[in-house]
Amino acid sequence: MSVFKLLSGAALAAVLAASSAATAAEAPSPEKIVLARQMIEASGGAKQMNAMLDSMFKAIGANVDASLPPEQQRLSAVLLQKMKERMSAAVPQMIDGAVQVYAKDLTDKELRDYVAWMQSDSGQSLARKLPQITAETLQVLTPVIVQITQGMKQDVVDEACRQAQCSAHDREVLSAAMNKALPKQPG
User: Fold this and answer.
1) Do 49 and 167 form a contact (C-beta atoms < 8 A)?
2) Alpha carbon separation from 95 to 31, 33, 52, 80, 165 (Å, rounded)
3) Which of 44, 105, 129, 146 sits in a 20 to 30 Å window from 135, CA-based?
4) For residue 124, how many other CB atoms are within 10 A of its CB?
């Protein structure tokens, strides 16, 4: 086992242990859980989450289509639909996770104020417009993110290796991992 894998595993174990200890120590009250759930429901709840998933999978679909040969592009829609079905099935679990975070990080007053605002005319208007705003934002941001990540891959590996004094093998492993995580987009 490489030192990199060993250190990565140890770091992950430490983060998970600290996270679970912090979560257990800071469990929100049942009243805050109710308020946080009201906040998410006032913001659109599952409908909003599914709209965000639709936007996300539309952006992913464009990238998948661009990376497939024309004769396999017909498979893209089926592949993405299957992925979306699985993600959509997890929406209740994602909402429960978000409820826990909001209940932990926001005060009772902040939660009540947000619910009241979301129930106002302006809040309701925003809730109706947010799926379209999210979709448009993803369309604008995706090409920028792809361009930035492509330009920074080797620079980041070089900087990390200078700092960590990588061996030639370590550099190859990191470069391969970055190329796998951030594949070059056609075009």
Assistant:
1) no
2) 17, 12, 13, 22, 42
3) 105
4) 14
Locus of tokens 């620079």: 155
pLDDT digits (tens, 9 = 90+) for 123-182: 989 888 887 888 788 888 878 887 787 778 788 888 888 988 989 998 888 888 877 777
Domain boundaries, the chain: 27-141
* Burial status of residue 67 (CB atoms within 10 A of its CB: 0-12, 13-18, 19 or more): middle
What does the alpha-carbon distance between residue 32 and residue 80 come to, in Å, rounded to a whole number?
A: 36
Crossing angle of helices 74-89/91-105, nearest 10°?
50
Q: What is the DSSP letter of 72?
A: G
| Least confidently predicted of 9-23, 43-57, 64-78 | 9-23
Taking the C-alpha atoms of residue 47 and residue 91, their distance in angstroms, rounded to an integer, is 9
Helices (H), 68-120: 74-89, 91-105, 108-118
Provide the percentage of residues in the chain whose pLDDT is more than 70. 83
Sequence length of the chain is 187
d(CA 51, CA 136): 12
CA end-to-end span of the chain: 38
Write the single-letter amino acid at 169.
H
